[in-house]
Specification:
The structure holds 2 protein chains of 2 kinds. Helix content of chain A is 12%, strand content 31%. By secondary structure, chain A is mainly beta. In chain A, the strands form 3 sheets. Chain A has a 3-stranded antiparallel sheet with strand order 1-4-8. In chain A, strand 5 and strand 6 form a beta hairpin. Chain A is globular, with a radius of gyration of 13 Å. Chain B contains 3 helices and 5 strands. The radius of gyration of chain B is 15 Å and the shape is globular. The interface between A and B is medium-sized, with 29 and 32 residues.
Chain lengths: 110, 130
């Protein structure tokens, strides 16, 4: 995976406000439903990718805002065979300002 | 939060695995709607689907369920209506709900069974050919 690759984190308005309040974005790890690993999840898919809803299973209200940044350092591409567009950080994940490319409404992302 | 759990099943040949898994799902969901996960192209009805070159298939229980997914995404109304298949190398990944229904668990169990049988048969054929 290229360091120049754009990575996305989708969220709702409260999540967007909380994360963008800091100069460096801090994404908080949490326990997802079911048996999936603890962590914070990212994707390399843009919201306008074909069948985004079905492929990411992100509820619509959690797709309204997006953080986009470059590079995948510290992120795990999960095991061979798992969805290749899903990335995981097993702990809180910090994105310094120089890596940030966009935050705001998903539908207006350039 | 990205949803769905990924279940990895070893397979001999990805396109065969996609075919077998799709046949299994459509036995449960007779009105299933199929789409190429990469292009978004519709593959339904099943008899017209061609798996050569396809690496991802999204199977929804019905056309209506597919439309709901496209409109609402993951929500209570779409729960239990989508199975996402991805073939990569010698692995078939089956993506299902985080908290799957009994029906989905049964479908995955049957897919796993048919792929293990295929893997065994394929290995046996390779040994005979050698």
């Amino acid at each position: 995976m290229s360091d120049a690759e754009i990575v996305y984190h989708y969220t709702d308005q409260p999540g967007w406000n909380a994360i963008r309040a800091q100069v460096d974005w801090l994404f908080k790890a949490s326990q997802p439903p079911g048996n999936r690993p603890f962590g914070v999840y990212f994707t390399t898919l843009r919201v306008d990718a074909p069948k985004f809803h079905k492929k990411t299973r992100i509820p619509v209200d959690k797709q309204e805002y997006v953080f986009a940044f470059t590079g995948t350092e510290g992120l795990e591409q999960r095991d061979e065979g798992r969805r290749p567009f899903v990335l995981l950080s097993p702990t809180d994940y910090l994105v310094a300002k120089h890596r940030q490319t966009y935050n705001g409404k998903s539908e207006t992302m350039p | 939060m990205i949803g769905g759990q990924d279940i990895l099943i070893p397979c001999a040949e990805p396109s065969v695995a996609l075919d077998l898994a799709t046949r299994t799902v459509t036995r449960y969901w007779s009105e299933a709607h199929l789409e190429d996960g990469e292009s978004g192209d519709v593959l339904s009805p099943y008899r017209d689907a061609h798996f050569a070159g396809i690496r991802e298939i999204l199977i929804t229980k019905t056309q209506q369920a597919s439309d709901l997914w496209d409109k609402l995404g993951a929500c209570e109304a779409t729960n239990g209506t989508l199975i996402h298949l991805l073939a990569s190398g010698k692995t078939l990944t089956v993506v299902i709900d985080d908290e799957p229904s009994e029906e989905m668990i049964n479908i995955v169990r049957e897919i796993r069974g048919s792929l293990i049988q295929e893997l065994f048969t394929s290995t046996a054929e390779t040994k005979v050919a050698a």
